[in-house]
Design goal:
Length: 156
């Protein structure tokens, strides 16, 4: 409970006061592997592959607010291929990543049996090495939440 300190003219909070932790949002759990979709909600699994941790986390937060999405993350192309299984519906891929680049991942998708959508999200324009003909969609950064979620929704 805040208290007013007359000498300092400020309110202060007793940080030693025990409070229960805030409730977790309905669409998150302690262990994502044990998460079950809410009844009646058709969930789409999205694998986000981007080596920019802050940008990737923004994408995760945009999707976490909506119970339609199950999100997986990869920090490079090799990790993306390793996490690509039959449950993944949409692969969101940065173009320039360590170990395997976006174009190298796209070239190897035939070896995986992946049949979902591939959306490239890159700061670089499409070119002869990777363009809309190689992927389901090519978005150029920066991208806002509405554009990104709309692109995923159209590919569900």
């Amino acid at each position: 409970m805040p208290t007013f300190n007359k000498d300092r003219g400020l309110y202060s909070i007793d940080h030693h006061e025990r409070r229960p932790p805030p409730p977790m949002p309905a669409n998150t759990t302690q262990d994502a592997d044990d998460a079950q979709p809410p009844r009646g909600v058709d969930r789409t699994t999205v694998l986000l592959a981007d080596d920019d941790d802050a940008f990737r986390e923004s994408l995760v937060l945009w999707l976490a607010a909506d119970e339609r999405w199950d999100v997986r993350e990869a920090t490079d192309g090799e990790e993306a291929l390793a996490k690509l299984d039959g449950a993944v519906d949409i692969l969101v891929l940065d173009r320039r990543m360590p170990i395997l680049s976006g174009p190298e991942v796209v070239d190897r998708l035939d070896e995986t049996g992946f049949e979902g959508s591939v959306i490239v999200l890159s700061a670089f324009e499409p070119d002869g090495h990777l363009d809309e003909n190689d992927t389901t969609m090519y978005l150029t950064k920066p991208v806002d939440r509405e554009t990104f979620v709309d692109a995923l929704t159209r590919r569900r």
